Amino acid sequence: MEHILQVKSVTQNFGDRNILSQTGIECKTGEVIAVFGRNGTGKSTLFKILFGSLKPDHIEVYLDNQLCIKTAEFNKVIAYHPQEVMLPRGPKVKDLISIYIPDKRKQNKVFSSVGISDMLNLRVRNLSLGQQRYLQFLLVVNLDHYFVLLDEPFSMIEPLYKDLIKEKLIEYKLHKGFIITDHYYLDVLEVADKVNVIIDEKIVPVSDTKDLICLGYLSDRSIVKQ
Q: Are strands 58-63 and 66-68 parallel, antiparallel or unpaired?
């Protein structure tokens, strides 16, 4: 069954500074939606609002054409992979998977994921930062939520895990929708179905890297392999 998340408008100010102004975005299950923007343009702020951890000045969100009245409703259908590693550091990986993902079938999908078998008997604190971020990604995408927000999933991880995350996004978007932001834009463009950039407090759809240059997100010298 297809689901649709529609953010008709969201406004956020911090003091006298406007971060987001009547910004809107839409995501359907089966899609990976990219949101680019320079530092400080409000990408992470938008994600925190959609997850329900930050109260906006104004927001109007619909799920399957039904208005969501309270932001607390958002995290029932929207999962969030933040920039920071939020996993508890003490448990062994195998125990954390069992605790975090109660469904046995989904547990097995995490256990059988490439790279996880070498981590199972290690405590989270003993993993590299890249391993921790990859593990957190796997746990988040195996939750029951229809939509997943991915904040910098390709940052601070080894190339192997970048490739594995791309493969998982293609696999899991069969039944989920993803909204993703990352400064590693070439990695994002490989998996994105639609691309947007935040400019002057608003989300603007773009079609290719030329638009990203015209809108000032990229310079023409930055179109090289990362």
A: antiparallel
Q: Is there a domain that residue 136 lies in? A: no
Residue 66: give the domain boundaries: 4-85+144-222
Residue 203 sits in a domain of what CATH number?
A: 3.40.50.300
Cβ-based neighbours of 142, under 8 Å, separated by 6 or more:
101, 106, 109, 110
Alpha carbons 187 and 226: distance in angstroms, whole number? 9
For 105-154, write each residue's pLDDT tens digit: 999 999 999 999 999 999 999 999 999 999 999 999 999 999 999 999 99
The length of the chain in residues reads: 226
Q: How many CB atoms lie within 10 A of CB 108?
A: 13
In a domain, 95, yes or no: no
